[in-house]
Amino acid sequence: MHKAIYLLTGLAAGAATGAVSGILYAPNKGSRTRKKLMRKTQKMTHEISDSVHHKLDEIESQVKNLKHKVEKEIKDTTDHLKRAVRHTNNVGKKVAAH
C-alpha cells in the first residue's frame, strides 16, 4: 500500500516537473504549448487512474484471499473444538458409568 502512495506521489511530482519544464522551454507559441500540455496532462491522468485501479484490484484480491484463509482457519478450529467436546463428553460418560 505504501509503495502505491510513493508511486503516485512520484508520478505527480514528475508530471509537475515536466509541465513546468515544458512551459519554460517550449519552442512553440502559447496556444500550441497549452494544447500539448493538456494532452500530456490527460494522458498522465489516465495513467495514474489506471495505476490506482490496478492497485485497488490487487488489494481486493489480497483481501479476498485473506478472508478465505481466515474462514478456513475458523472452520478448522471449530471442527477441532467440536471433536474435543465430543471426546470430553464420551470420557465423562465412561467415568460416570463406572
UniProtKB/TrEMBL annotation:
Residues 49-76 form a coiled coil. The chain crosses the membrane at residues 6-26. The keyword Membrane applies. Keywords: Coiled coil, Membrane, Transmembrane, Transmembrane helix. This is YtxH-like protein.
